[in-house]
Structures are given as structure tokens and as C-alpha cells.
Amino acid sequence: PQKGIGNRKKILVLSCTLTLVFLFSDGHLTVLTDPAPVIARLGTSVHLNCLFEVGKPQIELASLAVQWFFNGQKVAEFNDKLHIYSPGVAISEQGLKDGNASLVLTDVHIAHEGDYVCKVFYTLDKTERITLKVKAPPRLSVPDPLVTENKASELICNVDGYYPELISVWWIRDGVLQHGSQHKTTRRNEDGTFNTTSMYTLTPIDKDKNISYACRV
Ligand SMILES: *[C@@H]1O[C@H](CO)[C@@H](O)[C@H](O)[C@H]1NC(C)=O
Ligand SMILES: *[C@@H]1O[C@H](CO)[C@@H](O)[C@H](O)[C@H]1NC(C)=O
Ligand SMILES: *[C@@H]1O[C@H](CO)[C@@H](O)[C@H](O)[C@H]1NC(C)=O
């Protein structure tokens, strides 16, 4: 309600003119501001709307930057944290999480009249991650076994210098995979590779002569 000329003089016109929208390839950013000039009464507080959507339910503050300009001068900014360069203006950090970058002028002065620009930047984190996996093939060696007929003996297979640690050692008797009677110990080398010694226990009897044993990883 306006009562007369005297009061009308105290009405300021704050025009919040434009919004720059930065659209990145995989982001959908839309920004909404007040279309017409914003009218504020001297001495009151006013908020200049700048609402944005990023096309996702969650707004990542780490991907967000907001800048407010007044007549070409930066007055407030959010970039990791909030920076206020001009007294009497504010942005709500909580509001940013909800897509509200509105600028609040707490005590409107004549000097506040002019053009306000809200710029919103939203980029997805472009950090690329590369995982390097190192492989080292095992070196196999089988020391000559010393076996005595009818006595429990051990066949040894050394599997050395391999990486990563997970490995399976199989014993094969005459082309047939053997189960049981084997155990292994694994040691770590200084260079990060591993040595495994696999031991296969057998009690050779006469028919085992000329039978070939092999270890396979
Ligand atoms: C945006 O934030 C301003 C200031 O914090 C508040 O006055 C206004 O109501 C908010 N707008 C919406 C749509 O939430
Ligand atoms: C692993 O095996 C190599 C031989 O291939 C040997 O020189 C080295 O000492 C062994 N490492 C361990 C920790 O036993
Ligand atoms: C052992 O095998 C070799 C070749 O496979 C054969 O020539 C030899 O006669 C065999 N010896 C015995 C004792 O069976």
C-alpha cells in the first residue's frame, strides 16, 4: 500500500537482470531468476532469486561454484566456501545444497540499486583414476627328489618371484591331477613378489617306478 509521494520516493528498483547458464556436456543446469525488476523498500531486506537445478537429485557442493556480481563487481562467491566481498549481502550455504543461490541484501540502501548477475557453474568431477596392476610370472624349479622305496618322501616344487600372491599349485601324477598329501609355504620377497614351496608327500612303491610327477601353477 502506498500512501503518497513521500513514501514512493523510498522505493528502490533493484533489477536483477541476467543469469548465465553454463552447460557442460554431461550436466544439465538450469537457472531461474526474477524476470522483472525487483522492487525493494529502503531499509528492508530483500532476496534476489537465483534458483538452479543440476538434473540430479543431489547437488554436490564440490562441483558447484556461484558468483554474484553487482554492476560488474563481484560481491559474493561460493567456491568450496562462501566469500562475501561487500557488506550487507549474504548467500545461504544450506540454500546452495537445495539449489537456492539467492542473494540476500539485509538492509537495502540507495547504493544497492543496479544490475545483479548470478552465475552458476556446475561441473562433474573430472578426475580420472587409473589403476595399475603389476604381474610377475612364477619361476618353477623342482630339485631332484631323493626318494626311497616304501618310505614317505617329499617332492618339492619351488614357485618363485611371482605376483600377485594368490596362486594354486597342482601336482600331477602321470598326467592325473592329485588331491591331498601336499602342503605349501609362502614367503614374501623384498621386492614384493612371493616364493612358494609346495611339498607333495608320497610313499613310493614298486609300481611308482618310471612314473612322472609334475607340478603346475
Ligand atoms: C531461497 O533462499 C532465500 C534466502 O535464503 C529465501 O528467502 C527464499 O525463500 C528461498 N527460495 C526458495 C524457493 O527456497
Ligand atoms: C625366493 O626365491 C629366490 C630364488 O628363485 C631366492 O633367491 C630368494 O631368496 C627367495 N626368497 C625368499 C624370501 O625365500
Ligand atoms: C621307463 O620309461 C621309459 C620311457 O618312457 C622306458 O624306455 C623305460 O623302459 C621305462 N622303464 C621301466 C623300468 O619301466
TrEMBL record:
Keyword Transmembrane helix: no
InterPro entries the record matches: Ig-like_CS_Receptor, Ig-like_dom, Ig-like_dom_sf, Ig-like_fold, Ig_C1-set, Ig_sub, Ig_V-set
PROSITE patterns found in the cross-reference section: IG_LIKE
Signal peptide: 1-27
CDD domains in alphabetical order: IgC1
SUPFAM superfamilies: Immunoglobulin
Coiled-coil regions listed in the entry: none
One family name in Pfam for this protein: V-set
Domain Ig-like, chain residue ranges per copy: 43-131, 138-217
Record keywords: Disulfide bond, Glycoprotein, Signal
SMART domains: IG, IGc1
UniProt protein name: Ig-like domain-containing protein
Gene source species: Latimeria chalumnae (Coelacanth)
